[in-house]
Design goal:
alpha/beta; 25% helix; 273 residues
Length: 273
């Protein structure tokens, strides 16, 4: 039995639970011998302790951080992600929560769990009315025989993107590193240190800065130059580092369960060994 939790403090946790149920049923139908998946809502440290893996859903990242602190979950979440290194996936606000740094935060900042050595830019594409859906190429969903996966209908709602990669250890599933706007942080001393978390692996980019959202171009006027880089051909919208996976967009708001299947297969695969 594998227990997968969805942080149910705020945001789209019910949608993730629905997609995970469908993904678990799909995996079971293909491989009946795989471990059963138990899905739970997580609101307390005790419920988190039962989990083998966790999804942190989208919502409002500042509210999510505040409620997590009030629930006594911040330190248990940090231990779950960064000490015991259990598989964790964050979508949209969840990606922000799992980043080491965030720009464009509200006054006073916000508590983050960390786990991904990146700095994200909150609400990168503008307000709620600037939300959009676009077909996104996700090479990590391609079949093992090399057949390219069909584009994924990515839903972006006040989405973050990665502005800075805070390590020089970077990998890419194909040529994604060649076409990103994110800057790479280099230690001032010039001496690089080995990162125990592993490489930041770029899994998907959104081609063309603001390509799907003209209104967002105006939003960068007068913005923090460090937070918004004008160079490059695309924004990092999916990445992985060790046990932590993050997406800027909302797979749970579509009928396409391929990302949930891909992530869950790795969880049950670990348990089956």
């Amino acid at each position: 039995m594998v227990t997968v939790g969805v942080l149910a403090l705020q945001g789209g946790f019910s949608e993730h639970l629905g997609s995970l149920r469908k993904a678990a049923a799909y995996i079971s139908s293909r491989s009946p011998s795989t471990p059963n998946v138990n899905l739970i809502e997580v609101r307390t440290p005790e419920q988190l302790a039962r989990c083998d893996a966790l999804v942190i859903p989208g919502g409002e990242s500042t509210t999510l951080s505040l409620v997590a602190a009030q629930s006594g979950l911040l330190d248990p979440l940090r231990e779950f992600v960064k000490v015991t290194k259990k598989p964790t996936w964050g979508t949209c606000a969840g990606l922000i929560f799992l980043s080491e740094q965030a720009s464009a935060a509200k006054k006073g900042g916000q508590e983050l769990i960390g786990g991904l050595d990146v700095k994200v830019h909150r609400n990168h594409f503008g307000r709620q009315r600037e939300s959009f859906v676009t077909d996104l190429d996700l090479p990590f969903l391609s079949q093992k025989d090399g057949i390219q996966a069909a584009p994924f209908p990515a839903v972006f709602i006040r989405a973050p993107v990665v502005d800075h990669v805070l390590t020089t250890e970077i990998g890419s599933i194909d040529d994604k590193m060649e076409s990103t706007t994110a800057e790479i942080a280099v230690p001032a001393s010039g001496n690089e240190t080995k990162n125990s978390k592993g490489k930041v692996e770029i899994l998907a980019t959104l081609p063309g800065r603001h390509a799907s959202n003209k209104a967002a171009a105006a939003a960068t006027v007068g913005a923090d130059a460090e937070a918004v880089s004008p160079k490059g051909a695309g924004d990092i919208v999916a990445l992985r580092q060790g046990n932590v996976f993050g997406t800027s967009f909302h797979p749970e708001l579509t009928d396409d369960i391929r990302i949930h299947v891909w992530w869950l297969e790795q969880i049950v695969g670990r348990a089956d060994k």
